[in-house]
Design a protein that fits this description.
It is a single chain. With 649 residues, the protein is an alpha+beta fold. It folds into five domains: 5-123, Beta-Lactamase, CATH 3.30.450.20; 143-246, Beta-Lactamase (2-Layer Sandwich), CATH 3.30.450.20; 267-334, Helix Hairpins, CATH 1.10.287.130; 342-503, Histidine kinase-like ATPase, C-terminal domain (Heat Shock Protein 90, 2-Layer Sandwich), CATH 3.30.565.10; 524-639, Response regulator (Rossmann fold, 3-Layer(aba) Sandwich), CATH 3.40.50. Helix content is 43%, strand content 23%. Helix 10 (248-298) runs parallel beside helix 18, helix 13 (384-400) runs antiparallel to helix 15 and helix 19 (557-567) packs parallel to helix 20. The longest helix is centred in the middle third of the chain and has 51 residues, at 248-298. The chain binds adenosine-5'-diphosphate. Adenosine-5'-diphosphate binds next to helix 13 and helix 15.
Length: 649
C-alpha cells in the first residue's frame, strides 16, 4: 500500500539514523532532523548544496567524480552496501559514521538515499578493547610463566601461552590439541600427586603443586603450578587459570645452599674434632715436660742446673699459655667456646688481679693508683674467669710496656647508656695511630719483639673476642711516649634485691682447704687410671714424695674398675682417653656403685673444654685438673682426698 507523503515525511523526521537524499548531481534534496543533529547544519543550509560539503578531503573533491562514474558506468562501489566513512560537521570537526546508500528514481531521475549513524563512541570502545586485549596478549606471550586457561568439564584448553615451548619443549598448538599431554610430562615419581592436584583443581578454589617434569628433550626441570578457578559470567561453568613457573634455577640454588650448609656443618665438626685432638696432643707432652721439670727443681741441683730447669719451666709455661690462647681463639671462632655470664663484683676481680701482679709491679718500681672510693664497687654481667683473664692481660701489658717508675691507674665509671667502664691506664711507651689499627690482630706485636718484653701478640686478640662474647666491647686510647688506656665496657647490673651468693661473690664458691681439711692421712692408696707411661712415671714420682701414699695404676678402664673394687682406694685419679672405654664411662660406673660412689675421684685430663669439665663435675668428679697440672695442687689431693667435700662446686 503506497504511503501518503505525510507518512513518509514522519518516517524521515522520526528516524534516529540521519537520512539524506541527493540527486544524480550530488545535490542534497532532503536532510532529516537526525542528520541536522549529526552534522550541525540546519536543513535549509544544506538542501540545494552539493553533498560533498559534508565530507573531508579526499572525498570532498572526488565525490562528484564518484557519482558521475556510477552514472556513466553503472558500477557501484557503495550502493547497496554499508561502510564506515568520515563526516565533516559544520564546525569542521570530523566524526566516524556508518553510511548505507540506496538508489531510487523519481520521475525517471535517479536519486540516492544515504542513511547515516554516528559510530564514534562505538569505535572508541572497540579500539580500547582491542588495545587492552593486545596488551594482555603481549604480556602473557612474553612472560616466562606458562599461562593456561581451561574448562573444567569437559576438560579442554582455551588458551596456552607460548612460554609452554620454553618450559615443556612443546608448542602451544600441540599442547592445546591434547588435554592429557601435561600429565604425561610429569616425572614418574611425581605423576600421582600431580594428577590428584589437577583433579582437585576441578572443584577447589585454588591449588598449588611443585613437581618435576621431563621435557621432550629429556631434561628434568622443576615447575611450580598454581590452579585458580574463576567464574566468567554468573551461571556459566567456571574456568581454571593455570600458571606454571619454571623453578629449576631456585631449586638448584636451594640444593647448592643446603649442601654448602651441610659442608659447613661437617667442616665445623671436623674443626672441633681437630681442636680437641690438638688440645689433647699438645697438653699431654707439656704435662711431662713441666711436671718433670718441677720435680727436678725440688731436687738438689747446682746453681747452673737450677737456672736451666727454671728456663725449661719458663719456656714450657710460655708455650702452654700460647697453646691455650690459640685454642681459645679457634674455639671462639668456631662457636665452640661458651661462657657463663653472671653478675660479678668488679672490685673483687680487680683485687684478685692486683694480688697476682704485685711482684711484677714491685720489680719495675711502678706505682699503682687504685680506683677512687667505691667507684668499682658495681656489678657487671661477665664470665668471672674470662673477665679476670682480660684484666690480667691489660695490667700485665701496662706493666710490660711502661717505663721504669711509671704509673698504672685503675678506674671505673658508668656511661649514660648503662655500660660500665673499667679502665687500666699506664704512663708507658704508648701506641701510634697506625699501629692501633693492628692492635687486635693475632700474633702482631706491633714491632715490640725487639724490646725484650716477652709476649705472644695473642692476648689482646683473645681479650677482644672474649669481651664481645660477653656482650661488651673494648676501647683503646693511646699517645706515643705518653701512655695508653684500655677500657672494658660491660653491661652494668642493678643489684637491688640480689643475694650475695647470687652476685658471684667469691665467698659463695670459694673453698679454704686448710679450714676444712681433716688432717693428713697416714696411709693412702691411690688408683691412677692412665695409659700414657710418661704421665704414670710422673705421678709415681709425685706419690713417692708423700709418705704413706701407695700408687697403683691401671692402663685400661676395666682393669682400673677391678683394681678399685678389690683395693678400695682412698683416692682415684682418672684420665679420660683410655684404650678400652672412656674415663667418663668409668666415672659413671664408679658413681653407680654404692661401694665406690664415695671415693673421691679427680679427673686428670689434657682436654680442657669447659663443657667437658662441667659435665664430669656434674657426673660426680671431685675436681678436674687439666694437664699440665700444677704439682702443688695435685699434692694437696694426696694430703687430703676429701678436701672438696662440703664445697659448692
Ligand atoms: P703481647 O703478648 O705481645 O703483649 P697483646 O695481644 O697483649 O700481646 O698485645 C699486642 C701488642 O700491643 C703488644 O705486643 C704491644 O706492642 C701492644 N700493646 C699492648 N698493650 C700495650 C700498652 N699498654 N702499651 C703499649 N703497647 C701495648
Amino acid at each position: 500500500m503506497p504511503h501518503s507523503p505525510e507518512v513518509l515525511q514522519s518516517i524521515v523526521e522520526s528516524s534516529i539514523a540521519g537520512i539524506i537524499t541527493i540527486d544524480s548531481h550530488g545535490i542534497i534534496q532532503i536532510f532529516s532532523p537526525a542528520a541536522e543533529r549529526l552534522f550541525g547544519y540546519e536543513s535549509s543550509e544544506v538542501v540545494g548544496h552539493n553533498v560533498s560539503m559534508l565530507m573531508p578531503e579526499p572525498d570532498h573533491s572526488c565525490h562528484d567524480g564518484y557519482v558521475a562514474n556510477y552514472m556513466s558506468s553503472g558500477v557501484a562501489r557503495i550502493i547497496g552496501t554499508g561502510r564506515k566513512v568520515t563526516g565533516r560537521r559544520k564546525d569542521d570537526s570530523l566524526f566516524l559514521l556508518h553510511l548505507w546508500v540506496g538508489e531510487f528514481a523519481i520521475d525517471g531521475q535517479p536519486m540516492f538515499v544515504g542513511t547515516v549513524l554516528d559510530i564514534t563512541s562505538e569505535e572508541a570502545n572497540r579500539s580500547a578493547l582491542q588495545e587492552s586485549e593486545e596488551r594482555f596478549r603481549q604480556l602473557v606471550d612474553n612472560i616466562d610463566e606458562v599461562f593456561i586457561l581451561r574448562t573444567t568439564a569437559p576438560y579442554r584448553y582455551v588458551y596456552i601461552s607460548p612460554a609452554v615451548e620454553k618450559v615443556f619443549g612443546l608448542t602451544a598448538d600441540e599442547a592445546v590439541a591434547d588435554p592429557g599431554l601435561f600429565l604425561s610430562f610429569a616425572h614418574p615419581d611425581d605423576a600421582e600427586f600431580v594428577r590428584k592436584a589437577m583433579e582437585e583443581a576441578g572443584h577447589a578454589q585454588r591449588v598449588e603443586v611443585e613437581y618435576r617434569i621431563i621435557r621432550s628433550d629429556g631434561e628434568v626441570r622443576w615447575v611450580w603450578t598454581r590452579y585458580q578457578q574463576f567464574e566468567v559470567a554468573p551461571g556459566d561453568p567456571p574456568l581454571v587459570a593455570v600458571v606454571v613457573t619454571d623453578i629449576t634455577a631456585q631449586k638448584d640454588a636451594q640444593r647448592a645452599e643446603a649442601s654448602a650448609r651441610a659442608e659447613a656443618v661437617r667442616a665445623n665438626a671436623a674443626k672441633t674434632e681437630f681442636l680437641s685432638r690438638m688440645s689433647h696432643e699438645l697438653r699431654t707432652p707439656m704435662n711431662a715436660i713441666l711436671g718433670f721439670a718441677q720435680l727436678l727443681e725440688m731436687d738438689e741441683l747446682s746453681e747452673n742446673q737450677h737456672e736451666s730447669v727454671r728456663q725449661i719451666i719458663h719456656g714450657g709455661r710460655h708455650l702452654l699459655d700460647l697453646i691455650n690462647e690459640v685454642l681459645d681463639i679457634s674455639r671462639i671462632d668456631s662457636g665452640e667456646l661458651t661462657l657463663s655470664t653472671e653478675p660479678i663484683l668488679v672490685s673483687d676481680v680487680m683485687d684478685e688481679v692486683m694480688d697476682l701482679m704485685v711482684p711484677l709491679v714491685a720489680a719495675r718500681h711502678l706505682t699503682v693508683l687504685a680506683p677512687v672510693g667505691d667507684g668499682c664497687h658495681e656489678h657487671v654481667l661477665a664470665d668471672r674467669q674470662r673477665f679476670k683473664q682480660v684484666l690480667l692481660n691489660f695490667v700485665s701489658n701496662a706493666i710490660k710496656y711502661n717505663r721504669n717508675d711509671g704509673k698504672i691507674r685503675l678506674s671505673c665509671s658508668t656511661r649514660p647508656n648503662g655500660e660500665f667502664a673499667i679502665t687500666v691506664s699506664d704512663t708507658g711507651i704508648g701506641i701510634g695511630s697506625e699501629e692501633l689499627k693492628r692492635l687486635f690482630t693475632p700474633f702482631d706485636r706491633l714491632g715490640r719483639e725487639s724490646t725484650g718484653e716477652e709476649g705472644t701478640g695473642v692476648g689482646l686478640a683473645l681479650s677482644q673476642r672474649l669481651i664481645q662474647l660477653m656482650g661488651g666491647r673494648i676501647e683503646v686510647e693511646s699517645a706515643p711516649g705518653v701512655g695508653s688506656s684500655f677500657t672494658v665496657l660491660l653491661p652494668l647490673v642493678k643489684t637491688v634485691g640480689l643475694q650475695p651468693d647470687e652476685l658471684g661473690s667469691p665467698a659463695a664458691g670459694a673453698v679454704s682447704s686448710t679450714a676444712t681439711a681433716p688432717g693428713r692421712y697416714s696411709q693412702l692408696t691411690v688408683v691412677y687410671i692412665e695409659d700414657n707411661l710418661a704421665n704414670v712415671r710422673l705421678m709415681e714420682q709425685l706419690a713417692a714424695r708423700r709418705r704413706g701414699v701407695t700408687l697403683i695404676h691401671a692402663m685400661q678402664g676395666r682393669l682400673g674398675l677391678d683394681l678399685i673394687s678389690s683395693s678400695q682406694p682412698g683416692l682415684i685419679l682418672l684420665d679420660l682417653h683410655l684404650p678400652d672405654m672412656s674415663g667418663e664411662e668409668v666415672l659413671r660406673r664408679l658413681q653407680a656403685e654404692v661401694t665406690t660412689k664415695g671415693i673421691p675421684t679427680v679427673v686428670v685430663s689434657a682436654d680442657a673444654s669447659p663443657g667437658q669439665i662441667q659435665r664430669l663435675l656434674e657426673i660426680g668428679a671431685s675436681a678436674y685438673l687439666t694437664k699440665p697440672f700444677d704439682i702443688e695442687e695435685l699434692l694437696l689431693w694426696f694430703d687430703d682426698p676429701h678436701r672438696m667435700e662440703g664445697a659448692v662446686p
